[in-house]
Amino acid sequence: MIDLRSDTVTQPTPAMRQAMFDAEVGDDCYGDDPTVNRLETHAAQRLGKEAALFVPSGTFGNQLALFTHCRPGDEVIVGDDSHIVWHEAGAAGAIAGVQLRTLDSDRGVLDAEAIRRRIRVGDDIHAPRTGLICLENAHSNGRVIPLDAMAAMWDVAQRHAVPVHLDGARVFNAATTLGVDVREITRYADTVMCCLSKGLAAPVGSLLAGSAAFIDMARRRRKLLGGGLRQAGVLAAPGLIALERMTQRLHEDHAHARLLAEQLAALPGLDVDLDSVQINMVWFRFTRPIDNASLMARLNAAGILANPPEDDLMRLVTHWQVDADAVARTVAVFAAFLRQ
């Protein structure tokens, strides 16, 4: 099967499976799992932070950041199209007890002046405290936020002493596209979450990184949330491979996404947003009505998994198990479907 539903579907590489088998383990709640310790130390260095914490998922990492940065009743400034708003099940209110103050984004880019206007100032007892600003890079729409935009938002936060959390689920994809070390992005955030289980292909896990004091507090709150880990080295071992090796090949996924986008764009009946193909995601619309069930049946019959269009908009995502041949097979199915 060719699975284009997301890069969350990536299966661990053979090297990862072997590393899981060979992993040296201990009890992470005691702090004596050597493989977890190596992963957290390496992740902190790669992300440019003092310390890091292994967590079960990206949503867990983001929500742990909100829970650790904020007090109940605080307000969090975040883009209205962000993953935290759309895809984390309302956890900010349920776990951290915060409210989200959303603002419009330009395809993922937040305006620094708009952020400034939303920061609560003064001691009005009627107003919530601005506890955090959340950014996202790469954005879940597949676009990469430029460094100058990151710097402008960071400057506003610094001037008002409001911490910044970066949802960096695909931050290594963003760094690949920008052609910079990932620390050139994470320097504009106090804390960052990055996923190991998306395009980096680890089977489970994400990382939350920040200052040593912040991570100490987050470790306690991870336990409160049921995230205390035991012999987690079997999961940390593929995470090390994800950081050390899989980050070095993301340009291949980006190239396959570009190839897929350009070949789909040549088909009549499709409007492909080529400007948005900045990482490993391809977005396109059908320019005439189609039968979704018929399309999905055709793809499934050809051994291709994809999420169906929503309001005629469809997304395909490349990853390490999608090569040029898979792209060609996929395009051929769409071409045949659109000819009928």
UniProtKB/TrEMBL annotation:
<dbReference type="InterPro" id="IPR023603">
    <property type="entry name" value="Low_specificity_L-TA-like"/>
</dbReference>
<dbReference type="GO" id="GO:0008732">
    <property type="term" value="F:L-allo-threonine aldolase activity"/>
</dbReference>
<dbReference type="Pfam" id="PF01212">
    <property type="entry name" value="Beta_elim_lyase"/>
</dbReference>
<comment type="subunit">
    <text>Homotetramer.</text>
</comment>
<feature type="domain" description="Aromatic amino acid beta-eliminating lyase/threonine aldolase">
    <location>
        <begin position="3"/>
        <end position="284"/>
    </location>
</feature>
<protein>
    <submittedName>
        <fullName>Low-specificity L-threonine aldolase</fullName>
        <ecNumber>4.1.2.48</ecNumber>
    </submittedName>
</protein>
<feature type="modified residue" description="N6-(pyridoxal phosphate)lysine">
    <location>
        <position position="198"/>
    </location>
</feature>
<dbReference type="GO" id="GO:0006567">
    <property type="term" value="P:L-threonine catabolic process"/>
</dbReference>
<dbReference type="InterPro" id="IPR015424">
    <property type="entry name" value="PyrdxlP-dep_Trfase"/>
</dbReference>
<dbReference type="InterPro" id="IPR015422">
    <property type="entry name" value="PyrdxlP-dep_Trfase_small"/>
</dbReference>
<dbReference type="InterPro" id="IPR001597">
    <property type="entry name" value="ArAA_b-elim_lyase/Thr_aldolase"/>
</dbReference>
<dbReference type="GO" id="GO:0005829">
    <property type="term" value="C:cytosol"/>
</dbReference>
<keyword id="KW-0663">Pyridoxal phosphate</keyword>
<keyword id="KW-0456">Lyase</keyword>
<dbReference type="GO" id="GO:0006545">
    <property type="term" value="P:glycine biosynthetic process"/>
</dbReference>
<comment type="similarity">
    <text>Belongs to the threonine aldolase family.</text>
</comment>
<dbReference type="InterPro" id="IPR015421">
    <property type="entry name" value="PyrdxlP-dep_Trfase_major"/>
</dbReference>
